[in-house]
Amino acid sequence: MTNSSDRKGKLVILSGPSGVGKTSISREIIRRLGAYFSVSLTTRPIGAGEKDGVDYHFVSKEEFERALADHELLEHACVFGNYYGTPRRPVEEALAAGRIALLEIDVEGARQVVRHFPDAITIFILPPRLEDLAKRLNARNRGEDEQARLKRLQRAQEEIAAAAREYKYRVVNDDLNKAIEEVIQIIQNEPK
Ligand code: 5GP
Asked: Atom 19, ligand 1: which residue's CA is nearest?
């Protein structure tokens, strides 16, 4: 197994509350830095506009549990009642090839990855204000009921509190282009 001393690439972990703009930022990291985007396994249903194998590998609970039992996952977590996990092999291969491997995962998953890769570049994206976050979550409305929406918001607040303690970098997304530049600078300035 690859360990932190012989790998050549950079492992980047991007976290933040739902609706904060992580996906837009990730897209630019991939485009501009040629990063490998880690496609997670998830048991949640596929959303409108999402592609299986591109946004996620959409799997059954049984398939997820098999991957977990076979030690195929670098980390995993339960988010909003669904399982999410990072396939280990492609991340290790990207790093061994000297690439940036980008993981868009939650706080719990980030903790697990940092245990294996202590020098991972951990970046938390913050909303400028919580009211803005609430508005964005409303606007995105994925057909959730009020209770699910509130749950999402509560989780966002918990994640923000955790971020203050645990992430190496924090970037406020009040202007998407500025946030992208900041994240790219952070990644480029970190040694391999
Ligand atoms: P969504 O379902 O909205 O795409 O993602 C919900 C949450 O799950 C987000 O915070 C996202 O970062 C997180 N997530 C996505 N993939 C993974 C993964 O592989 N592992 C972990 N721990 N969290 C993930």
From this structure: 85
